[in-house]
Write a structure and sequence with these properties.
With about 230 residues, the chain is an alpha/beta fold. It has 2 domains: about 1-50; about 50-220, SGNH hydrolase (Rossmann fold, 3-Layer(aba) Sandwich). The protein has 10 helices and 5 strands. The protein has helices at about 1-50, 60-65, 70, 85-90, 95-100, 110-115, 120-135, 160-175, 185-190, 210-220; strands spanning about 55-60, 75-80, 105-110, 140-145, 180. α7 runs parallel beside α8.
Length: about 230
């Protein structure tokens, strides 16, 4: 009887684990579909717009969250951040970025590659392709490469060890091309190198005071005048 009970317990646990696995895969599928919908909603708007010149911010939800034209009180600042975007996503929409013909570009991308487990080699190849495309299509634009920001210690996916390693390789790409690399970690990290608790409400996205710090760091770098 005990042996039968043990077998039933093992079988029940196996069923529960299998059900949890199916649920996890289903959640990932839903997240992927939701992210793609976000991308489409944002990108199809960009395709309908036709700004020209100015200063371009390119990135994921962390960039998207900044109300940049108001933060800098400038009408020539364009926000092309898309929540959930990756290095592959930036490459996919490169034509709409190039069409703006910006004079200055602030780029931050890569944390969602880590969140999704994209192989490091693929992320780096995509990143290098992004910089190559900017150099080829926008040779007169000034590109500022910004580090990927830290996350909280308990963030569920990307971790700061991998973020640091990715940033070191991004720094190498920028320096090899003679581009300005901007390490933003000192602005946002606590003594342990994690995203400062008071600057986020979920472990990765930024609150207003963080954007104010970011603005103050970038303000001296923005080209003067309205860059139409």
């Amino acid at each position: 009887m005990k042996r039968l009970g043990l077998k039933l317990s093992v079988a029940l646990n196996a069923v529960l684990l299998a059900a949890m696995g199916v649920a996890a895969w289903g959640a990932l599928d839903l997240l992927s579909a939701f992210t793609q919908q976000l991308f489409e909603r944002r990108q199809t708007q960009f395709e309908e717009l036709s700004p020209s010149g100015g200063i371009l911010f390119v990135g994921d939800s962390i960039t998207e969250g900044g109300i940049w034209h108001e933060l800098f009180a400038r009408p020539d600042v364009w926000n092309r951040g898309i929540g959930g975007d990756t290095t592959a996503g930036v490459l996919e929409r490169m034509d709409t970025l190039v069409a703006i013909q910006p004079k200055q570009i602030f780029l931050m991308i890569g944390v969602n590659d880590l969140n999704r487990g994209v192989p490091r080699e693929q992320t780096l190849a995509n990143y290098e392709a992004i910089l190559t495309a900017f150099d080829r299509e926008l040779p007169k634009a000034e590109v500022v490469v910004q580090s990927v920001l830290p996350v909280s210690a308990d963030w569920w996916s990307a971790n700061n060890r991998d973020i640091h390693a990715l940033n070191e390789q991004i720094r190498g790409f920028a320096e090899d091309r003679g581009l300005l690399y901007l390490d933003l970690h000192p602005l946002f990290a606590d003594d342990q190198g994690n995203l400062e608790a008071g600057l986020t409400n979920d472990g990765i996205h930024l609150l207003g005071p963080a954007y104010a710090r970011w603005r103050d760091r970038l303000a001296p770098l923005l080209r003067a005048g309205n860059l139409w």
